[in-house]
Write a structure and sequence with these properties.
Helices cover 88% and strands 0% of the residues. It is built from seven helices and no strands.
C-alpha cells in the first residue's frame, strides 16, 4: 500500500509541475493531492504542525500568484482590468488553439484583445500591454516552480529527518 501512496503522490506532484506551465491543469489542487497522498503514506500526525502550516502557505501562494503576477505585469505597463482578464482567458484558451506556443500567444493576444474591448489604445501601448502580460506570466511560472520545489523540500525533510 505504501508504494501506491508514494506513486500517487509522485503523479500528483508531476501534474502540479505540468500545471505551472499549462494552466489548464490546476497546479494548486494537484499539489494538495500530492500532500494528502504523502499524509496517507506516512500518517498525517507524523508531519507536525510546522509542516502543515508551511504547506498551507504554499498552497495559498500557488492560488494567488498567477493573478497577482499577471495583474501587476499588465497594470504596471498601463493596461486595464480588461487586459488582465483577457490574458487569463488567453492562457486557458490558447493551448487548445495552438498547442505549446498557445500559452504565450494566448496570454499576449488575450491581453491585447481585452484592452481593445475596454478602451482601446494605440498600437504601441497595446504591444507594451502584451509584453507586460508575458512578463507577468513568466514571473508567475518562476514563482510557482520555486513554491513547488520549496514544498517538495519541506515534505522530503519532514519524511526523512
Amino acid at each position: 500500500m505504501d508504494i501506491l501512496w508514494i506513486g500517487l503522490a509522485i503523479i500528483a506532484y508531476a501534474l502540479a509541475i505540468i500545471g505551472v506551465i499549462y494552466p489548464i491543469i490546476p497546479s494548486g489542487p494537484a499539489y494538495i493531492l500530492a500532500i494528502i497522498f504523502l499524509g496517507l503514506y506516512a500518517g498525517f500526525a507524523e508531519f507536525g504542525v510546522g509542516f502543515w502550516v508551511g504547506q498551507t502557505i504554499i498552497v495559498i501562494l500557488l492560488f494567488v500568484v498567477d493573478f497577482l503576477t499577471s495583474y501587476y505585469g499588465i497594470t504596471r505597463i498601463g493596461g486595464s482590468k480588461g487586459a488582465v482578464w483577457g490574458s487569463m482567458i488567453g492562457l486557458v484558451v490558447g493551448p487548445f488553439i495552438i498547442p505549446v506556443l498557445g500559452i504565450i500567444i494566448g496570454a499576449i493576444a488575450g491581453a491585447v484583445i481585452g484592452e481593445l474591448l475596454v478602451g482601446g489604445h494605440n498600437l504601441k501601448s497595446l504591444g507594451k500591454i502584451g509584453l507586460g502580460s508575458l512578463i507577468g506570466y513568466l514571473t508567475g511560472v518562476v514563482c510557482k516552480f520555486f513554491f513547488l520545489f520549496s514544498g517538495l523540500l519541506l515534505a522530503g525533510f519532514s519524511l526523512w529527518l
